[in-house]
Amino acid sequence: MATADSVSVFAEGTFEEQIQELVDYATRSSPEDERATALQSFRDIVRLDEGARPIEQDQERRRNALTFALDQTNSLGDGSEQEMEGYFNLLFSHLLTLWPANSPEIQHHVSSLLGVLASSPSEHPSVRYRVISNLFNATPRNSALRLPIYTTLLQVAATNGELETLRLSRKDVEQWLQEWDISREERSQFLQSIVDAFIQSGQSETAYHYTLSYVASLPSSSPEGRLAAIDAIVLALRLPSLFDLDPLFKLDAVVLAKDHELFSLLQVFLNNGLPEFYSWLESHPAVLEEYELDRAQLERKIRLLSFASLGFAHVGHDLPYSEIASVLQIELNQVEKWAIDVIRAGLLSGKLSQTTQSLHVYRSSARTFEREQWEALEKRLVAWKAGLASVLEVVTSAQKRGNGSAVSEVVQQVTQTSESVQVDAD
User: Fold this and answer.
1) Whether the Cβ atoms of residue 273 and residue 251 lie closer than 8 Å to each other
2) Beta partners for 360?
């Protein structure tokens, strides 16, 4: 039997008495005549006719009795939050006991219950989340039922602007998609529902990371894959604080969209600078408006990326303000402002010097890590090795002289050596 997550259900009495309690609760707020009719119909279902087996031994009658209770469930009910949660937990317990988890009947009943829970008034949002979560945890871990259950939970949370209450993580999502007995198409649909939920909640950067998984889940040469790839490029370009575009560029569906006008723009942001950006704009004057891309925001992003690339080529060295101004196409008096911006963005760290009109670069991020970046790293490692050899010579000399005054010189050389090999590949 497939394992499920633990959900505690405390119930007393016989099966008939428990279902009677469910019907009583479900019809509590009904008009008196409707309630009386419902209770009589339930008694007719569970009545023990002469020669019939007790209901505990008659699965068909137990199913009919529970189905009747399910049919009466059209809201969270009229009760305390504890009663609401207890009602649905007991309902789920019998539902998952009476039918196999992959049966058409249980799929129908779960779908109906999810519709009720999703459309119930939001006076008790926390109860709805707990009830749907309890159903999710009560189903077997590999059950396909978990897909519509969690999708409903996502929709409810996103609609109410409370997506953070789910504490969803990519690790959880990856694990679920490995466990659930669902098709590739259903996996893609689930990932898309997560993307849509985060977009709806205004969390575009989180949505982007799930978008990468969504694009990767689709056949790369399919129309759906191409459309998703273009949407991912647009989202990546729109995000003002997203600078790591390399994972997107490595997706097969994105590479196959190389004939699209936005692919060439993505290449500019991955490999080039402002001259190429302005050239692209001249060749595609209407594209930014078509895809609702902000030119000023794109200019800022390409400047910051160009600054980081320039810094990457000068790690451990002084970078003149004049060279920064030239690459960023800005006035000399704007360099320090852009230096502060690139440091705040986490793309570079260094120390400004107004005296020498330079930026000493301690660390900088590479936009991509290909052959050119590996060669640069190799050069720095060689320099680092040579620096360590020099440090060793100073230490040996100091030991021979028995002179402790050389310690400061050693510390200085070690510091300079360590600065020369700090590299990030974001």
Assistant:
1) no
2) 318, 351
